Amino acid sequence: MSIKVGDSLPQATFTVMTEEGPKPKTTDEIFKGKKVALFAVPGAYTGTCHKMHMPSVFQNAAAIKAKGVDTIAVVSVNDVFVMNAWKRDTDFNNEAIYLADGSADFAKAIGLDIDLSARGLGIRSNRYSMLVDNGVVKKLNLEPNPGKVEVSGGDTLLGQL
User: Fold this and answer.
1) 61 is catalytic
2) What secondary structure, in 3-state letters, does the chain show?
3) Which of 38, 49, 57, 80 is flagged as catalytic?
């Protein structure tokens, strides 16, 4: 069953890159007591994610934060080294935290995993945006087609704030 508006996020651990190297970061550390705009993509550097989804996030990042969002987070089923390189190549103003969900544990826990094995990508995350307030889902914009950015972009979430 997929997570829905009103649900609390389950306990999960992501990996983030720090100056000291890869470190675990829990859902509580990221979401507790904060308003977070979470953007999930099937894969770093993939065409739609890299050329459409991330630009929509960062074109709207300042406005999203001006509406009271404490943190912008990007999650993908990739390893922390790929996520760190992708942050370097997309987040020019250091406006977001990039969360590696390397084994899709978080995507599976919230029921938003997708099997893209037929495309050689394995188990990935669905494409979505989510507004999370103190660990509770307030908005959820699940993309019906993971190859498109029609309802999960930064502009859509900004309009909901």
Assistant:
1) no
2) CCCCCCCECCCCEEEEEECCEEEEEEHHHHHCCCEEEEEEECCCCCHHHHHHHHHHHHHCHHHHHHCCCCEEEEEECCCHHHHHHHHHHHCCCCCEEEEECCCCHHHHHCCCEEECHHHCCCEEECCEEEEEECCEEEEEEECCCCCCCCCCCHHHHHHHC
3) 49
